Amino acid sequence: MMQDQRDTSYLFGGNAPYVEELYESYLHDPASVSDHWRDYFDNVKQVPAADGSSRSDVAHGPIVASFAERAKQGPIRTVSADSADSDMGFKRVAVQQLIAAYRNVGNRWADIDPLKRTERPDIPELDPAFYGFTDGDMDIVFNTSNTFFGKNQMTLRDLLQALRETYCGTLGAEYMYIADQKIKKWWQEKLESVRSTPHFSADQKREILDRVTAAEGLERYLQAKYVGQKRFSLEGGESFIACMDELIRESSAKGVQEIVLGMAHRGRLNVLINTLGKMPTDLFAEFEHKGPETLPAGDVKYHQGFSSDISTPSGPVHLSLAFNPSHLEIVNPVVEGSARARMERRGDLLGEKVLPVLVHGDAAIAGQGVMQETLMMAEVRGYSTGGTIHIVINNQIGFTTSDPRDLRSSLYCTDIMKVIDAPVLHVNGDDPEAVVLATKLAVEFRSQFHKDVAIDIVCFRKLGHNEQDTPAMTQPLMYKIIAAHPGTRKLYADKLEAQGVLPVGTGDLMVKEYRAAMDAGKQTSDPVLSNFKGKFAVDWSPFLNKKWTDEADTAIPLTEWRRLAERVTSVREGFKVHPLVEKVLNDRSAMGRGEINVDWGMGEHMAFASLVASGYPVRLSGEDSGRGTFTHRHAVFHNQNREKWDAGIYIPLRHIAKDQAPFVVIDSILSEEAVLGFEYGYAAAEPNTLTIWEAQFGDFANGAQVVIDQFIASGEVKWGRANGLVMMLPHGYEGQGPEHSSARLERFMQLCADTNMQVIQPTTASQIFHVLRRQMIRQFRKPLILMTPKSLLRNKEAASPLSEFTKGGFHTILGERDETIDAKKVTRLIICSGKVYYDLVKARTEKKQDEVAIIRLEQLYPFPHKALAAELKKFSNVAEVIWCQDEPQNQGAWFFVQHNILENMSEGMKLAYAGRPASASPACGYAHLHQEQQKSLLTSAFAKLKGYVITK
Fold first, then answer.
1. Residues 234, 347: one domain?
2. Can you give the residue ranges of the Transketolase-like pyrimidine-binding domain (predicted)?
3. Residues 195 and 437 sit within 8 Å (Cβ to Cβ)
4. Percent of the chain with pLDDT over 90
5. Whole-angstrom Cα distance, residue 838 to residue 854?
6. What crossing angle do the helices spanning 239-253 and 202-225 adopt, rounded to 10°?
7. Residue 545: its pLDDT value, please?
8. Domain range for 300
C-alpha cells in the first residue's frame, strides 16, 4: 500500500461516524459486533479513567480517540504466516471499514450525472485492494449483521455488489455526517434493504412517464408557439415534475393537507400547469398579452404565485406557490413564515398537516446567504416548521457563463445542508424512477423525524438561462453533449417499451395526447377541486379593495384600561423579578392608576394587552425583543431564583384573560434578511395577527433590503398581496455613530407610492398605543414602518396622560402644544418629525422666540395633506416654513416632504431646510462633532433664512 494513500484516506485520523455507530451497537448488544471489535471495545473499557474511576460508562469520545491513534498505523497490520486466526480477524475489521467507506463516500462514485462529463474520482477506500483484499478473498463469507441487505453473512463479492448498487447507482446518499445515530440507522435500513433500487408496478411506471411527458410536452409546445419568449424552460430536468407529483401524493398519504411551495424561475411555468393545475389557456393569454391587467404594476408570468386544491387518493391537498421576485432564494424564509402561520392556525405544532417545500437552483443554493440564514431557523423555537423538503434542480452550469470551478468552494451545491445535519439524496435526473424513489424516502424521513431533507436532481439545462440566451458561446463542450442527448422522456419511454412494460409506440402516443390537451386548453394535472374550500382557509375579502383612511376607533374605556393595567403589572406568586424590573412594575402600576404619565413601554404593553383581549393575536420577534434592546419593554420576566428557561419566565401578556388571543415574543437568531422574510410570510398568511419585526437598531434593516424592496414595498402592486407586517426600526441621532443612528428613513420614503405602506415616526406613548391598535382595527392591511425612538423611551416629555388613551386616537400631525404661543404672532412655522421636536422646544424656550410655532409630522406617508392644511390655517401670519430634521440633508425625509409641504403653503411663503449638511455617512462617529452638528441645526432652525430657500 502506498503511504500517500494512507495519508489521504478518510479512515486515517479516525472514522468517527463509523466507530461511534459500531460502539453504539456494542453498548446495546455486545454480540451484535464482530469478535474482533467486541474484544477491542472490552479492552478500551477496562482502561482506567483519568480520575481512577471505572470505565463502564465510557463515552464515545475515548473510543474514537483510541481508534484514531490505532488507525495512524495503517488499515492492515502485518501478521505472521502462522497467525491465520489473527489475519482473519483483521480482514473482518477491514470488511467493516469497507462498509463504512461506501456509506460515507460511496456517493462520490454514484452514477448521477446524465451528461457523464467527469471521470469517476480516485477514492482508494472504495477499492477492496486498499484493505489488502485480493481476488482470492472474494468468496470468503463475512459477518454482515450490521447491514440491512437481508443477510447476516455474505461473501465479499456479494457484499461489494450490494454496496455498489446501494451507494453508487443513480441515487447517491449522504447522511453519515449526521450526529443522531437513530437517523443514520434509519437511512441505512431504507437504502440497503432495497439497494436504492426502485420497484414500481407497471401502472406506476406509466404514471411516471406521463408526468415526464407532460413536463417535456409543455416546454416544446411553448417553444413552438411562442418562439423566443422567456419562460425559463425545464427541458433537461423533466423528472422534477414526476418528483412533485410523488411528493404531493406521498405527503397526503402521511397526513399533509397543505403544501407551501417556493421556487425561482426555472420550471415555474411547468409547475403552474402540470402540478398546480393552472389552465393552459390562462398561461397562453399571458404569453399573448391578453390577460387581465388589474394591478397598478403587475409582474412577469414566471414570478406569479398560484394556489389550488388537488385531489389525491388520501384526500384533498391545498397547494400554494409563493410569489417570487428575481432574487431567487429570497422566497425561502417567506415560505417558512407562511407555513408557520398555517401550522399555528391548525394547532399543528409538529408540521404534520403543513409542509414547506423549497425548490432551488444549484448556483443559488450554494451562493446566496439567505439560504444559510433560513436553515439556521429550521429547528429554532418560534420559527421551526417541522422540516422542509428541499429540491435542487441542478443544471450543473449555474447561471450560464460560469466555469464549474467558479460556482462554489464546496464539493456539492447542497453541502450547505450539512450545517443542520440534513440528509441529501443526489439522484440522476435521467432516471425518473430513482427521482421518485428519492422523493418517497424524503417524504417518509420528514414525516418521521420532522427535519429538513434535500433531493439534488442532477440534470442539465437544454436551453440557455432564458430562451434568448445561447450558452454554447461560453460552454461549447457541455452543449455539444446536450445537443446529442435524446431527452429524459425518450430514454425512459424506450426503456419501458424495451422492458415490455408498455407496448411499442406508447411513448409517442402519449406525446400526441398531451399536445392535443394543450391545443384544447385542458388541465393536465391531477383533478383540481375548483369549488373546494378548506376548513382552515383564510378569508381575505374583508381587507381587500378598501379605501385608505387615517381614522380608527382605538381608544379604550377607563375601566378596561385599569383592568388591563393590573394584569400587565402582575406576576405569579413566588416569582422573584430583578430589582430593576420590580421598579418598572411599580411605575407601571402607578401609570395604570393615572398617578403618573404613561411612558413608551407601558403604552406598547397596553396596546398589546387590549389587542389580545379583543381576540387579535400578537407576534413580536427581533434580536432582543423580549427585554427590548434599550431595556424598555420587559415583556418577559426572569425568575431571579431560577435558571431553567421554561420554569423561570413569566410573560404577563399571556395572562390577560382566560379566552385571550396568543401573545408571542421571540428573541430571534442574529439574522435580519431571513427573519424579516419569515415574518412577512407569516403576515401574508395570517391577516388577523399583529405581526411585528423589530430591528435591534434601525440600520440593521439594511441587511434585509431585498425583502423590503421586493415584498414589503411592492408586493401589493405587483401581485395584489395585502400584508399588515409591522417593522419597528429604532431611529434617532443620539451620538451613537453611523451605524446606530439612522434607520435610513430616506430609503423607505423613496419606496412610497400607490398607498403601498405607512411610514410613521411617533413621538409619544399614546401615539404608539393608538397606531398599533389602528393597525388591526382598520379593515385593511398595509405594511407599517415605525421609526421608533431610543432616548424618548425614557423621556418624561414623551410620556402621555392617561386621558390620551381613553379618548381620541392616532394623530397624523401633532400641532403646537404650548398654550403660551399666540397663533396670531407666529411668523415662522417649524415642521419636524421625531426626537428633534423635543430639542427644538427646548431651544425655543432658551432663545425666547415665541414667534415660532413647532408642529410634528407623525405620519410621513401617506402624507396627511388635510391635517397639515388645517394646521397652517391656524397661523395666518406665517411667512416662513422650516423643515427641520436630525438626518443629513441628502437623507431623512426632506426630499420627500418638500413638495408635499409646498402644496399646502400660501403664495409668497418661503420653505427652507434646517439640519445637518449632506453626508456620505448616516451620522458622524465623533461625540464632539455630533454635539456641534446638533447645536448648528438648532441654531439654523431659528436663524435668518439662507442657502436653499423655496418660494411658493
1. yes
2. 598-795
3. no
4. 74
5. 10
6. 130
7. 83
8. 202-520
How far is it, in rounded angstroms, from Cα 781 to Cα 779? 7
The whole-number pLDDT of residue 10 equals: 43
Which position has the higher pLDDT, 89 or 486?
486
Structure confidence at residue 230 (pLDDT): 82
- Can you name the residues that pair with 202 across neighbouring β-strands? none
The pLDDT tens digits of the residues spanning 483-504 come to 999 999 999 999 999 999 999 9
Identify the CA nearest to 430 among candidates 372, 481, 365: 481
User: Is residue 366 within 8 Å of 413, Cβ to Cβ?
Assistant: yes
Instruction: Report if residue 30 sits inside a domain.
Output: yes
Sign of CA dihedral 380, 385, 389, 390: negative
- DSSP characters for 604-626? HHHHHHHHHHTT--EEEEETTTT
Which three cell numbers, joined as nine digits, stand for 543?
A: 381587507
Angle at which helices 202-225 and 432-449 cross, to 10° = 110
Residue with more model confidence, 463 or 431: 431
- Rounded distance between C-alpha atoms, residue 871 and residue 544, angstroms: 32
In a domain, 538, yes or no: no
DSSP state of 486: -
On whether both 145 and 224 belong to a single domain, the answer is no
Indicate whether 305 belongs to any domain: yes
Q: Are residues 799 and 842 part of one domain? A: no
Residue type, 115: L
CA distance 476 to 229: 23
pLDDT in tens, 655-674: 999 999 999 999 999 999 99
- Residues whose CB falls within 8 Å of the CB of residue 905, separated by 6 or more in sequence, listed in order: 872, 881, 911, 952
Helical pair 927-942 and 836-847, crossing angle rounded to 10 deg: 60
- The answer, yes or no, to whether residue 399 has pLDDT greater than 80, is no
Expressed in angstroms, the distance from the first to the final Cα of the chain is 91
CB–CB of 793/730 below 8 Å?
no
Q: The domain spanning residue 616 has which CATH number?
A: 3.40.50.12470
Residue partners of 433: CB distance under 8 A and separation at least 6: 198, 200, 205, 208
pLDDT per residue as tens digits for the range 695-726:
999 899 999 999 999 999 999 999 989 999 99
Torsion sign (Cα): 521, 522, 526, 528 = positive
Cis bond before residue 862 (omega within 30° of 0): yes
pTM for the full predicted model = 0.90
Tell me, yes or no, whether 307 and 380 share the same domain: yes
In-domain check, residue 562 = no
> Residue 424 — φ and ψ, nearest 5°?
-130, 130
780 sits in the region (left: phi over 0; alpha: psi -120 to 50; else beta) called beta
Across 6-15, 374-383, 391-400, least confident range? 6-15
Last residue of a domain, one of 806, 838, 863: 806
Question: Phi, psi (5° rounding) for residue 342?
Answer: -70, -35
In sequence order, the β-bridge partners of residue 857 are 813
**Cα 930 from Cα 733, distance rounded (Å):** 9
Cell of 250: 406521498
Are 918 and 890 contacting, i.e. CB atoms less than 8 angstroms apart? yes
**Can you give the CATH number for the domain in which 835 is found?**
3.40.50.11610
Percent of the chain with pLDDT over 70: 91
Which of 665, 731, 666 lies closest to 702 in space, CA to CA?
731
Average pLDDT, the chain: 90
Residues 6+ apart with CB under 8 A from 39: none
CB contact burial 462-480 (16+ within 10 A = b; e otherwise)? bbbbbbebebeeebeebbe
Q: How far apart are CA 692 and CA 784, in angstroms?
A: 9
Q: How many domains does the chain contain in total?
A: 4
What number is the average pLDDT over the span 251-262? 97
C-beta pairs of 195-199 under 8 Å, 24+ apart in sequence: 195/149, 195/162, 195/165, 195/166, 195/169, 196/165, 196/166, 196/167, 196/169, 196/171, 196/434, 196/437, 197/165, 197/169, 197/437, 198/433, 198/434, 198/436, 198/437
